[in-house]
Each structure stands twice: as C-alpha cells, then as structure tokens.
Amino acid sequence: MSGSSASAAGLRGFSGGGCRYSLLTIIIWTVVGFFLVVHLVSLYSRKDNNIHDDVSSSDQLQVVHQHQHQHLHLHHPVVHQLVRVEEEILRMPPPRKRSPRTSKRRSRKPIPLVEEFLDDKSPIRHLFFPGLKTAAFGPTKDMGNETSYYFPGKIWMDTEGNPIQAHGGGILLDEKSNTYYWYGEYKDGPTYHAHKRGPARVDIIGVGCYSSKDLWTWKNEGIVLGAEETNKTHDLHKSNVLERPKVIYSEKTQKYVMWMHIDDANYTKASVGVAISDNPTGPFEYLYSKRPHGFDSRDMTVFKDDDGVAYLIYSSEVNSVLHIGPLTEDYLDVTPVMKRVMVGQHREAPSIFKHQKVYYMVTSWCTGWAPNEALAHAAESIMGPWEKLGNPCIGGNKVFRLTTFFAQSTYVIPLPGVPGAFIFMADRWNPADLRDSRYVWLPLVIGGPADQPLEYNFGFPMWSRVSIYWHSKWRLP
Ligand SMILES: *[C@@H]1O[C@H](CO)[C@@H](O)[C@H](O)[C@H]1NC(C)=O
Ligand SMILES: *[C@@H]1O[C@H](CO)[C@@H](O)[C@H](O)[C@H]1NC(C)=O
Ligand SMILES: *[C@@H]1O[C@H](CO)[C@@H](O)[C@H](O)[C@H]1NC(C)=O
C-alpha cells in the first residue's frame, strides 16, 4: 500500500515538470529503489536457505558447501561422502481409478506420492518397500564391497538372517561391555484393526533387543519384556499397545531402566510404563504405568544428560504440546517438575540429542501412520524455550523432504568418532503390514546457519542448522 502511493507521488512529480520538485523526486526514487534492492536481496537469501522448498540442485549444493566450511572435521573423505547431496527421482505412475474405499477414507487429499505410499496396491510400492529377494541387507548376505553399508528402507537382517524387529526403537551404549543395544517394538505378527475405524495394530509381542559392536551387525537377544497372554487387566496384555521403548542405565542403582508408551487399543489410556533389569538383555521386570504429571502421554522418549540427570519428553494434551521433566535419581518415576514446550505445535515422535552444550530435538507432525515433515528445534536448556530451526531433511527429492524420507523420527545417537555428526534413526511405517515397517538410518550433521527466522534471537543466527542427508546407501566412516 505505502509503496504504491509513493510511486504515485513520484509520477506526479515527473508530470508536474517543475524544477522545484525534481530534487524531491530524485530523493523519493532513491529511497524507493533502496528498499526495492533490500527487499530483493532478502528474498534471494531466503530462497537460498530454504532447502526444503523446490530449488535446483545447484542451489542446494551451494548451501551445503557453505555448511562444510564451518565443519573442518568433515574433511575426512568418508565423512565428506555423508554430507554429499544425493538426488532421488521417483517416476510417478499414470493416474488411475482408485477403489471407492480408499478415496473415501481420505478426506484431505495428500500429495499424490504420499497417496501411493499409503496404498498397499500401488504399482510403485516396491520403491518404498522393496522386497525381500532383491533388497535385503545384513551380515548373512554376501554383499561384497557393500558389506557394512546401510540401505535405508530395505530389509535389514540380523546375524541369523531374519528381518530385524525393533520398531519405534532406541539405542543404549552399554559402557561396561562397550556394546550397543537396540530396543524396539517386536511386531512380528499379523496387522489388523481391533475394531471398526480403529488404528492398524499388531498385538503386543514385547520389546525386542539386538546387540552390536559396530551398529551394523545386529544379534537378536530375544524379547526382553514380553506380552501378558492371559491377564486382561494387565498393561502388557496382548490386546493393548506398547510403543517406543527406550532404555537408560542408572549408575546410581546399577539398573537398566526402560520407559515406554503404554496404551489401550483405542489410545485412551495414554500412559507411560516403566520396567527394570540388572542386565541390558533383560529379562525386564514391568513395574507400573502412570499418566506423568497427571497428563495424557503418547509418543515419548527419555534423554540422559551428561550430568546423569534423565528426562522424560512426551506428547501431551492430545498431542498438541510436548512436556519435558526430569526423572527421579533412580530413573523410576517423574518428579513434580515439568515444562510445556512447543505449545500448540502438535509434534510427536521426539528424539533428543546434544552437541556442544546445545540440545537439539527432531520431531514429526501428527498424521497417524502417514509420513510428514520433520522439524528440528534447538535449546540452551532442555527445559526450553525450544527454538524452531526448520526441516532438517536434505537431498532425495521434494516429497522425500516433506515426508522425512517417508519415515518418522525415533532416536538419534552420536556417530562414533565424528564430533557434530549423528545417526538419525527413523521408522518407515507400513500400516498394511506393520511388521514389515522399515528402518531409515541416515547421517545427521550439526553446522551452518539455521534456515528460519527465529523467534528469540533478534535477527542474529544463534543456532546451527541440523541437516539429515538422504542416501540410498551409506556407511559409517
Ligand atoms: C563395488 O564394486 C562394484 C564392481 O567393482 C562397483 O561397481 C561398485 O561401485 C562398488 N561399490 C562400492 C560401494 O564401492
Ligand atoms: C492381573 O494384572 C493386574 C494388573 O497388573 C494385577 O493387579 C492382578 O493381580 C493380575 N491378576 C493375576 C491373576 O495375575
Ligand atoms: C474402543 O472403542 C470401541 C468403539 O468405540 C469400543 O467398542 C471398544 O470397546 C474400545 N476398546 C477399548 C480397549 O477401550
């Protein structure tokens, strides 16, 4: 509005033609021109930073090189591979008629590629869920020079040649044995709907545990917390829900403590459960469940800080707010301290990590089993305020970046030997057959300026960018 009236005044100045006005006119046009240039420059730089928008790959490379300059330790040749931007072209099939059932179920039309992803009859399903014969990887396969490569989305075999069952999982590095333990939902059963319009589910089987020294070769340690077969009032009765188990070790009590989301088939119980064991490989003894701080709690994780204080982070208030609070010293309960963060942002699937005294969190939005856009946040105190950094996903293609590579965050661990680099762990859920959900592990790097204009920093880029790089295959340095 003000711009157009200024130029109208300028035009009047010219047509009036009087010498008296010409100096004023020049000044006005200079000022207008200056603001135009400033505006264009700011537009240009915003476009350059918005990697998740549709920009050409050369723009992306530019941004990424910028990041690399700030990361001297990334000059290691293998690390350099991790931060290379990898494009992925998915050919869409021609439009086709859908069954009335599928079209009715979706009132809000998702991106066509997401629709293909959710349709278990899609002709391009193999792109999201490649089959066992062609696309399995692991220590039992003869992989030649691709041994120890991760293939995000392909079927990952354990040391016995069975697909790994550890969904919604987390990793514990056991310092006593220098061994990694991967805990997750063991879902190796049929998927069905408990009742009409209920969510797709698998009966609780229990928490699976796998051990590894190298984060690639995983040995099945069995079910370390099993379902309850007969007692219908028990939290772990197979008709209920057990999700996102995470294990931390208490130096104080020398116990391994498992926290998990406990629910009924309708997701109305919305509680956390706690179990305990003397050994990382169990058996875990189930202690109890509760609504932490008296609130509903669904997707959750636990984070153990350097100082030994552990925190519970959970989606609450019908998934609209994240709650964060410290655990008691024995890690068996929450304390009365709790902060509401990311209020009204509807984030779930939280995963927390820390680098140089700054806390980072990657979360998803809430769209059930359908994949959506991830967001990274940063904070100087884990209790907040948490500042939004934007979508961390880089590479693949636009839909990949808008769907977290068709996956949902679950955990982030430091990438051994490379400060500032992490492994981002996510689940590519397969609601038609949940046991066949895939793992998307990718390198995550902290560095470079954040994308988004930030709320609390008065225009100064205080935080680094969190970047998750797509690779169809990659390996640890
Ligand atoms: C493995 O070897 C094959 C054949 O020599 C080569 O084409 C391929 O690029 C190699 N893969 C890796 C990951 O080095
Ligand atoms: C069934 O589980 C409930 C809740 O854990 C418990 O209170 C009850 O004693 C159990 N019943 C039997 C028969 O074990
Ligand atoms: C879930 O809701 C359905 C329909 O409202 C009901 O029939 C069923 O009993 C509920 N199940 C549980 C476990 O609450």
TrEMBL record:
SUPFAM superfamilies noted in UniProt: Arabinanase/levansucrase/invertase
Keyword Nucleus on entry: no
Transmembrane segments: 21-44
Keyword entries, A-Z: Glycosidase, Hydrolase, Membrane, Transmembrane, Transmembrane helix
Family: Belongs to the glycosyl hydrolase 43 family.
Name listed for the protein in its UniProt record: Uncharacterized protein LOC104727269 isoform X2
Species assigned in the record: Camelina sativa
Upper lineage: Eukaryota, Viridiplantae, Streptophyta, Embryophyta, Tracheophyta
